[in-house]
Amino acid sequence: MIDITLNNLTKQYNKSEPAVVKSLNMTVSRGDLVALLGPSGCGKTTILKMIAGLHSVSDGEVLFDGKVVNHIPAEEREVVMVFQNSLLFPFMTVAENIGFGLKMRHLGKEEIDRRVHEMLELIQMDGMGERKSHQLSGGQKQRVALARALVIRPQVLLLDEPLSNLDAYLRDEMRDLILQVHRDFKVTTIFVTHDQEEAVLLADKVALIFEGRLHQYGAVRDFYEKPQSERVASFFGNRNFIQGICSKQGIETEVGTLQSALAKDRHGEKVCLMIRPEHILPEKGKENTILCLIKEKIYMGTFVRYRIEFADNLWDVLDSPEQRAGYDEGKRGWFTFPSHRIWIV
Ligand SMILES: Nc1ncnc2c1ncn2[C@@H]1O[C@H](COP(=O)(O)OP(=O)(O)OP(=O)(O)O)[C@@H](O)[C@H]1O
Hints:
The longest helix has 18 residues, at 168-185. The protein has helices at residues 44-52, 94-104, 109-122, 138-150, 168-185, 196-202, 220-225, 230-235; strands at 4-11, 21-28, 33-37, 59-64, 67-68, 79-82, 156-160, 188-193, 205-210, 213-219, 241-246, 251-253, 256-258, 270-274, 289-299, 304-310, 313-319, 332-336, 343-344. β15 and β16 (304-310) form a beta hairpin. The protein is α+β, with helices and mostly antiparallel strands. It comes from Oceanispirochaeta crateris.
């Protein structure tokens, strides 16, 4: 296991175009499982490839355990990268595919057989070692690709969209396998994804990237509860924002004065408030109560989602399936949220 530090890491592919990764600073501690999350084209794969040594660094540094590795070639970095559609060698069996890296390192046949067998057990494909890649399902190919990467016992595992393109069942299986691998092999792991759900399902920590810049880095929970900007909150599915100005009485908004302890000591400051959908109750409360038009009501099985409108704002509310208030579409209803549930972004 090693620590990875990115120090002002920058990548500019073409001099005539802006950098695609811009002065990125972050540390992935040994044994962490980190998601690089962001929309398509924000530079995630480029970052991963610079860590792997597959792309040069335009400026800044990649450090492994405090040592700069910028000039160390990919094959000497003890890093493996598994691509989304990692191709297996079609002319080789599953076992030969998995053992390939060990053969290249000139290990003896017995040792190779033993470690390949270990890997086949790990990916629950014992007995399938003699199959060729065309005889495998998509999920099995992905597991073999992971085993082929891990068999050389790398210090760092880099994964490109590991759960994408898998149906719900295979997604859970692959997730369990990656978590097991991470635990058993104690390997520092970074994966890239554009899918917030994939990041949340798998990662301990998330690094959210927009246009090559790091916008927030930390525990998954903080992205929901303490997003650092409206953009970060929106990316995590939140649409409940309202602008206000802090005053002695609370926060003055277009729907009246809202109460929040966070407004204290911020008199006169303009703020953007966020309230999560599950923290809004469909009832008339003592404070922070708004009368809204029910634009939409959808029964989702485990919860009911209201889309509510007030003073040009469109918010989401999640309620239990028992629907305490039982508001109907097209009608008006009271909603409230406790002051400690307001977050200032
Ligand atoms: N080899 C390259 N030469 C020039 N530009 C490149 C190269 N590779 C990537 N880019 C550009 O760099 C930007 C970031 O690409 P990158 O693949 O790192 O993004 P990403 O966040 O991983 O996207 P996606 O989720 O779609 O894979 C894009 O604008 C892309 O066109």
